[in-house]
Amino acid sequence: MLLDVLHRAVAVGWVYECSQILVGAPLFRRRLAPLVAECRAGDRILDVGGGTGFLEKLVSPSCTYLCLDLELPKLRHYTVNNLGANALQADATQMPIHTGSIDLVTCIAMTHHLPDPQFAQMLEESARVLRPGGRFILLDAVLAPRRVPGRLLWSIDRGAYPKTADNLRAALASRFEVGRWDRFAIYHSYVLGVGTRM
């Protein structure tokens, strides 16, 4: 019961942003900043599961940023707080986006919300919407049973499908050429992978 209330509360934009600060998101965002900064003027960036659009703060104003998420309260928070925001409420497994029209797809802290078949479909859709040579950035917490803080966080997380680092790397490599694969820890154990559309 209490866990259900907590999960509903985290769907609210400002509550979600506060919860992200508590789990160390500002620290992993620093790892993302140089990767997103590699975008060139005119690039189109799709943030899959973008929530309240935090990634837009890392994106050059010369690029077009699109925040895709299934949860309307988070997207509302994003659009209210960002004049001219590009938000799209959609399912990441069936993106209403033209094939080959995106230069960079990001998927941050989202894979643990998808069962394996949906995760595979999200990767397939991400590869479809990317232009040839486009990049895919994946960052998420992974199962690491020996990490006590991570176990506690998983016990309250809405994401019911945490994956291992090996599972994520294999899935990424099945659709992209993996050019970078890092593991690091804050409270959770994390992976950060960058793949290029083959």
Radius of gyration over all CA atoms, rounded: 16 Å
Percent of residues in helices: 25-40%
Describe the strand arrangement of the main beta sheet, using strand numbers: 3-2-1-4-5-7-6
Q: Any idea of the CATH class?
A: Alpha Beta
User: What is the helix/strand order?
Assistant: HHHEEHEEHEHHEE
Classify the oligomer.
single chain
Return the structural class: alpha/beta
E-strand count = 7
Describe the sheet with the most strands: 7 strands, mixed
* CATH overall fold name: Rossmann fold
Give the rounded overall mean pLDDT. Answer: 87
Tally of separate helices: 7
Q: Descriptors for this entry?
A:
single chain; 198 residues; alpha/beta; Rossmann fold; 38% helix; 27% strand
List the helices and strands and how they pair.
Blueprint: H1 2-10, H2 13-22, H3 25-36, E1 44-48, E2 64-69, H4 72-81, E3 87-89, E4 102-108, H5 116-129, E5 130-142, H6 148-156, H7 165-175, E6 176-185, E7 189-197
Parallel strand pairs: 1-2, 1-4, 2-3, 4-5
Antiparallel strand pairs: 5-7, 6-7
Structure description:
The protein has 198 residues and is α/β, with parallel strands linked by helices. The protein has one domain (2-197): Rossmann fold. The chain is built from seven helices and seven strands, in the order αααββαββαβααββ. Strands 3-2-1-4-5-7-6 form a seven-stranded mixed sheet, with helices on both faces. It is globular. The mean pLDDT is 87.
